[in-house]
């Protein structure tokens, strides 16, 4: 199969934006399951523990202490995409903990010591 040829009177409809070109530079793809170590650790990491059965879920340590010995279980918060917005809102709204005062609720080993 031969490619169509154009006479001097005909114009090609191929523009630079639609023409396929081979690039000498290649992009590196980010690995979806790669473990990323962040130096700017969120304050939520002190107050939530990762679910042992599902790594995408986290539970509030404060509620876990309060519900110990009862039939209640703490609500699971999603960690999908490393998004901590819902956990930050929980700490702020339910426990009055913010990034400015979270150290007031930790002991010398950075463990939760205040039970609300």
UniProtKB/TrEMBL annotation:
Compositional bias annotation for Low complexity: 15-25
Bias kind Basic residues: ranges: 26-37
Superkingdom of the source species: Eukaryota
Residue numbers spanned by region Disordered: 1-37
Protein name: 15757_t:CDS:1
Species annotation: Cetraspora pellucida
Lineage of the species this protein comes from: Eukaryota, Fungi, Fungi incertae sedis, Mucoromycota, Glomeromycotina
């Amino acid at each position: 199969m031969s490619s169509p040829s154009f006479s001097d009177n005909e114009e090609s409809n191929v523009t630079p934006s639609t023409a396929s070109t081979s690039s000498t530079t290649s992009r590196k793809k980010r690995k979806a399951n790669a473990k990323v170590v962040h130096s700017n650790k969120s304050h939520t990491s002190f107050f939530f523990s990762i679910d042992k059965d599902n790594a995408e879920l986290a539970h509030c340590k404060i509620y876990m202490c309060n519900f110990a010995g009862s039939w209640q279980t703490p609500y699971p918060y999603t960690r999908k995409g490393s998004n901590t917005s819902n956990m930050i809102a929980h700490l702020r709204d339910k426990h009055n903990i913010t990034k400015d005062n979270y150290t007031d609720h930790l002991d010398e080993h950075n463990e939760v010591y205040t039970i609300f």
